[in-house]
Amino acid sequence: MSKSSSNVKLYSGSRKTARATAAISAGSGRVRINKVPAEIVTPEVAREVILTPLQLAGDIRDKVDIDVKVKGGGFMSRAEASAIAISRALVEWSKSSELKQKIIEFNKHLLAGDPRRTEPKKFGGPGPRRRKQKSYR
Question: What CATH number did the domain enclosing 60 receive?
Fold first, then answer.
């Protein structure tokens, strides 16, 4: 197998139980999430989250192709994991401290991640904190 001239780099992002891997290479600005163009991802709320780092990147977006594979979690966690992977890929690819600063000012979790997880359920109630009420009257 011959070595291709396009250099592909992989970057990961995660949110709760969703894991995303972004493959970035030189190209014409195509962005795909699980082989679907990012512009037609549904629901629209998730699409906005995914496109945020691309809008912040400006003209850098038109020079690269990004393929994201994401699995696990719900649709919003998948969108946020994809956004994290895309923003990390764009910052590393462009080596632009200006873009990195712009993304951090907008939302630092797009590069650093968000460590919050759901708290496990405990006994004596329906969830992690709520308990059954008791009355002695």
Answer: 3.30.230.10
Domain count, the chain: 1
Report the predicted TM-score, pTM, of the whole model to 2 decimal places: 0.85
pLDDT along the chain (137 residues), means of 10: 65 93 91 92 92 90 92 94 94 90 92 90 91 80
**Helix or strand holding residue 92 (H, E):** helix 75-94
Report the alpha-carbon distance of residue 89 to residue 65 in Å, rounded.
Answer: 11
Residues facing residue 57 across a β-bridge:
none
Q: Six-digit token pair at 5? A: 């001239």
Yes or no: say if 103 and 53 are a contact pair by the CB < 8 Å rule: yes
Tokens linked to 52 = 């945020």
The alpha carbon torsion through 62, 63, 69, 75 (nearest 10 deg) reads -20
